[in-house]
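Quality-control log, excerpt.
Job 1 of 2 completed; input and output follow.
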Amino acid sequence: MPKIETPPQRHFQIIVLTISFISLILGTILSPPIQDQYIPLISLLVLIGILEFLPLKLLNNKYSLIHIVLFSAGLIYGTGLAVWACLIGIGVAVGLQIIFPSRLLSFSSNQKSHLWAGLFDFGLNSSTLVLTLSLFGMTKGVSSLNMGGSQGWILILGAGIFFGTVHGIFYLTASNYLIANRSTRENWDILALISTEILPTFFGFTTLLVYPLIGDGALIILGM
């Protein structure tokens, strides 16, 4: 049963709402989406929508794997396309969760809970992506980098590690506000969380290696 909202929870929701709005605006300004990117946009919408609709459960809270897809998309297409695909994909998933609520009864029990969970996922992932790519100078994707030597790949490795670390810390911090009861498998859940936060780096490298060969099809390979 979800917690009854307390003032700290409401304040936390306001913070997430603010961060979500700022990250969407910044991501769009730093790397505006290009008109002919409708194929990767649709591919991302499908992948993010599926992952948001079928989440995992860690620390008795919903945990989506969309950060793996989002990081790779940001590396290829920049922040603008990635954050908008994230917003729309999560929005579609939330709509489906409201229409077909049985899939997430263990996480939330009303429309407000679904909407808040979707907003939290968007804020968590979009802000982490925009922060990471901004700090590492990759807001327009790796096309703005010189990948001829090892320096570019080392930069991507650092960005992947930073992205996973920040994403995991944000999720752990937020779990204190969002869960009703501590999981009896909390230690195992934390190990699982650490494992999934390593995946963006691995799949980021894989996507970048495949992208020059098959283009936008790299996203489909990533989804598979």
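Job 2 of 2 completed; input and output follow.
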Amino acid sequence: MQNIGSIALLIPIVTMVALFTFLSIAVWSEERRKEREAHYRGELMKKMLEQPGPAADRILDLMRGEEERATAQKREGRRLGGLVTMAVGLGIAILFVALEPGESLWTIGLIPFLIGAVIFLFSIFGSRPQEVAPRREA
């Protein structure tokens, strides 16, 4: 009987160790990938500086396009996050109206709804990318 109790106690411990190990490896591999991308990007920039010309301009345009796509993707992610948070707030408000009609508990749902509204509005109106002025040669 004692054996079964100790095995049952080991299951959550092993699960937590496995989860921590998995998350550690996942984060490490993602950071390693970002590090390699930054290294290759730096090498490419170095070669572009050594050999300027139309090919370097095309590569620079491609890199700018990648940055613009990444910015647009972040903005869309914020919009989606804001809409989901607003929906959660609305759902909480409806739940409290159904559970306690006549009470003002539904206002609790306003907290996540308003947070979602701020995130959504920020994704639309806030944080536009700054245009970089071209450098003038002296």
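Post-run check on job 2. Residues 72-129 form one domain.
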